[in-house]
Amino acid sequence: MEPVEVGKSLVVRKENSYGAISDETIANATLDCDQFVSSQGYDAIQATETEREFPLAYSIVVHQDAAIVERLLRAIYMPHNIYCVHYDLKSSAEFISAMKGLAHCIPNVFIASKLERVQYAGISRLKADLNCLSDLLDSEVKWKYVINLCGQDFPLRTNAELVSDLKELKGGNMVESKWPGDKKSRWVVRYLLKNNDSEYYGSPISTTEEKSPPPHDLEMFVGSAYFTLSREFAVFALNNTLAKDFLAWSEDTYSPDEHFWATLVRVPGVPGEVPRSDPEVSELMSKTHLVKWSYLEGNLYPPCTGVSVRSVCIYGAAELRWLLNYGHWFANKVDPKVDPVLIECLEEILEEKRLRRYDK
């Protein structure tokens, strides 16, 4: 927040001189894996013994801009962790080629075995993460926690810092979970998906047909699509009859990814349960993602210094200190085409922290 430095970053943005790297460039770079891994520094990344004893898993759902996805992977990469990448079946051939190249070259990075044609606010967004969860549980890496990300996320903490925070959860989950309020309309009637065999159009459309109540007398909660889940809870979510029934019931609801996790973590007796008697777990209390909504600016947090798209702030460099000091683990959203300085600063800060950690 030093005025002179913020001013410099604004000049960079105004010049709009950021040279975007094409999907094809990333795909071509991964044709020589040894050169790619070495040039990007993946082979030089080391972990402490404490980190190796607490492996993490990631579900990364993406659809465009391979260069940003690669920067995200590099920022969160540890050779003992495991990373599932789910690309949208609607993505371009160049982007898909780049994702396959990254998975081919970087150890412990793989493409989900089952892929979805992701539709906004539809069940496919939730299934993309569930597909990755299934693959991650089948992997040889016995990870402790799984975190899901999208292509415009970026870490605010090093892996070592994240492991330290996750140990403090003692098996609990970090999921936004609030009373539904006016969002009950998302599941009181059926929603239909429009398609013509291969392409989806728009958001799910509400009908006048009433839905049955949630199965197993579930009490509904809402939150976000993003989560940090213990391994034990992930097993429950994929294999328990209650969870399977709830998923099937959610097929024709609106944005089921925003009530599926929020509701399941409240079920009495589940691993890492959030008791229904507990206060609401808001997005500011859930550390996984720090999202800035335009309609809450000036009330809960300072104004967006980047650009707001669909009410969500794409951060600017002037928010760097706020992002780092708030205590969350990932920033959503970032985009070098909006502000290249922010991501470069975060990369530099994280790298300096890692080097200090390993020099001790």
UniProtKB/TrEMBL annotation:
Cellular component terms (Gene Ontology): Golgi membrane
| Gene Ontology MF annotations | acetylglucosaminyltransferase activity
Which keywords fit this entry according to its UniProt record? Glycoprotein, Glycosyltransferase, Membrane, Signal-anchor, Transferase, Transmembrane, Transmembrane helix
- Could you confirm whether the keyword Glycoprotein appears in this record? yes
Q: Under which pathway is this protein filed?
A: Protein modification; protein glycosylation
**Could you tell me the membrane topology recorded for this protein?**
Single-pass type II membrane protein
Q: Name one Pfam family in it.
A: Branch
Location in the cell reads: Golgi apparatus membrane
Q: Which family does it belong to?
A: Belongs to the glycosyltransferase 14 family.
The protein's name is: Beta-1,3-galactosyl-O-glycosyl-glycoprotein beta-1,6-N-acetylglucosaminyltransferase 4
This protein's species is Danionella cerebrum
